[in-house]
Design goal:
Elements: H1 7-33, H2 40-45, H3 51-59, H4 61-84, H5 88-105, H6 127-140, H7 149-166
Amino acid sequence: MRQTFTKSQLASLLVLRFFAGWHILYEGTAKALNPQWSSLGFLQESQWILSGFSEWIISNPGVLAVVDFLNVYGLIAIGLGLIAGLFFKVAAIAGAILIFIYYLNSPPLIGIEYVLPSEGHNLIINRTLIEAVALVVLALFSTSNIFGLDALISNHNKKEESENERS
């Protein structure tokens, strides 16, 4: 089923897709280029429902290394998928889940104080949660079948099927 959008709807969704993709790609790339980066500091700050899981990750150096690797290259793959429109729904849903996990580790709730500085003064809703929700919206209103590598692959496959039917 192909979705149809007005020009302004499509343009708005494409801008949102590019901005989210760029932010996620940048975060992954910045971590990949910093040999000192580790999720250790972030996980040590976890104080909510995932704090026990975070403590388990921290206490297992091999698991921490895997989490760091998956975090860095997962962010890069998700960002590229969003920008290029390749495996777009998978990228958007994976991004939403990953970013929501960040939120669950350090939500802006009353009574929770963090050592690491945060951006602004938030209560319940912060940019992390907003970005996770935006990725869900992008997954629901996919634009990659109109503008992206998914559309090119789909058109190529349809062309091949059509040629095969004629043969």
